[in-house]
Amino acid sequence: MARLFLACMLVLLLGIATAARTTADDPPAGDCDQDLQDLMSSCQQYVHFPADPKIPPSPACCSVVQRVNIPCLCSKVTPTVEALICMDKVVYVASYCKRPLQPGSTCGTMFAIGSHADGDCENDLQSLISDCKTYVMFPANPKVPPSDACCGVIKKANVSCLCSKVTKETEKVVCMEKVVYVAEQCKRPFEHGFQCGSYKVPAN
Asked: What region holds the Bifunctional inhibitor/plant lipid transfer protein/seed storage helical domain (predicted)?
């Protein structure tokens, strides 16, 4: 029972901490145990798998999302936690609660390439985060062949639009060498010299 409770706490931690916006007004990282307990109490049911249906979070949940100590919560996020939560629901809950993930922000290994409201590739961005994230994160090795679902997204994505949204913060958590590898595996390689964020694709 204790292990199950801990797992549930970690699941909820990732869900809300990733989705919430980090701003200059957020308190510094420190003690956020009470925030975690409040999230568990009010928001847990809205961020579990499966991805659908998505349920509008309660006013109590949104109230917690809007006031939690984001740097502290993010400091507790691990890749293992991220494997246990539906990120589509995280984005939905955060947007509903009017505290969306901001461009260039990171929490654990979750990253925001661009705004959820601009550009012609927003659907591509959401699909890439959902289906390809595990194949492009650091460390650079080993490189794992992407899934069919990931390649399906890569083959139809607006690459130029997506690359225009890559920031230096994004590149701290996304391994661009793996991005190139995944594109090649999906039969849509980058041209030599193509620039994505600050990364320029080298010649072979």
From this structure: 32-107, 132-196
What is the Cα–Cα distance from 97 to 21, expressed in whole angstroms?
Answer: 11
Backbone conformation region of residue 157, classed left if phi is above 0, alpha if psi is from -120 to 50, else beta: beta
Cβ atoms 44, 8 nearer than 8 A: yes
CATH of the domain at 152: 1.10.110.10
The DSSP result for 43-63, as a single string, is HGGGSPSSS-S--PPPHHHHH
Using one digit for the tens of pLDDT, what is the confidence trace for 143-197?
Answer: 999 999 999 999 988 888 888 878 887 888 889 999 999 999 999 998 888 888 8
Q: pLDDT (tens digit, 9 = 90+) per residue, 97-130?
A: 888 766 555 666 665 544 443 456 777 887 888 8
Last residue of a domain, one of 101, 126, 152: 101
Residue 106: inside a domain, yes or no?
A: no
Domain that holds residue 65: 1-101
Q: Is the link from the previous residue into 139 a cis peptide, with omega within 30 of 0?
A: yes
Using the 3D structure, point to which of 39, 69, 101 is the last residue of a domain: 101
DSSP 8-state symbol, 131: H
Measure CA 122 to chain center.
14
Output the pTM of the full model: 0.47
